[in-house]
UniProtKB/TrEMBL annotation:
Domain Glycosyltransferase subfamily 4-like N-terminal: 18-178
Glycosyl transferase family domain location: 195-349
Protein name: MSMEG_0565 family glycosyltransferase
Sorted UniProt keywords: Transferase
Keyword Heme carried by entry: no
Amino acid sequence: MNDTRMRIALFTHSVNPRGGVVHTLELGRALQEAGQDVTIFAPSVGGAKMFRASPCRVVLAPAAAHGNDTVTMVQTRIDALKAALLEEGASGFDVLHAQDGIGGNALAELREAGAIRGFVRTVHHLDAFDHPRLSAWQRRAYVDAGTVLCVSDTWTRKMRDEFGITASTVNNGVDVARFRDVEGGLGICNEFGLTGKPVVLAVGGIEERKNTLQLLEAFALLRRTHAEAQLVIAGGASLLDHDAYTRRFVARAVELDLRIGRHGAIVVTGPLEDAAIAALMQRADVVSMMSLCEGFGLVVLEALAAGAPVVVSRIEPFTGYLDDRVCCWARPDDAGTIADALRRALHQRGGIDFEHAVPELLARFSWRESARRHIALYADHVQRITRRLCA
């Protein structure tokens, strides 16, 4: 793919199965297969291992436990990544690439101290923080980067128009094979009592950004015509505090007389083993992605790869790469339209063209192509740093 072999360090914020961590692992694998020398850095609390094995070298940076204090958590992970990179020899890497604000701040601080010459930052999406320290950290992580990438044209435009940052789009990929012919489906169904007819799956836990409360309202409406339906909310290994939103969700479920628990109308799995998500997608009758904000929304492609029809928010970035042939649209602010879209998806799989349109969509988003694009942008990044140093 490229004749120039580079030593590349990728930085992610966690060892848990979140979208940005999956992106880092898959990108690292594709870069390694393309002939690059890749090391992945991730903070680890209590010796926790990376949730998925990687062919790349993985450096787990010991990070102190932090309780529920988000600011302390971020600071400890920044410090952990800085220490790990310095111990590994920061100057020995050609490219230092942060996938989030934690890694971005670790690299920004090392750049300010003169320990590194510059870094690359991928912005998946940006959050709205009430705490000024968190907001400042988020901004520094892209402002101080020498090269900024985004996973969708939507966010590339946002970075330019709203923040004055010139970025390049490098799309996500999807490992289709990981979501085909998955074993363990019966085990996961038995473990959580998944007997629903149908099963509606949402991945990412209970979060305001994931719009889980609105999905709950839509599910209650769906149960009027599908009384045995189950809503499965999988995953949720977030670093941010979603306790208040989760309490609202639980209280509303009680008001709607929807029991949460094994064999209940609502099943909340919490963080799962890697293979379990793929098994759930194959079991699901429909996968819902009603997010209010996403960088790309990789779950949609993963669900389609597993053969599950998807209901998706009719917002960017989804409207940039999906159409009526591959998904059922819904307004994320209207529970009625979400319920209607779920019913459409459950009737003859929503008319989604799994024979032609879905394979064509999945073929457009490969990690191999993402790696090729990254390598070209890395080479440009290195050249610009070299020119600046020689000027």
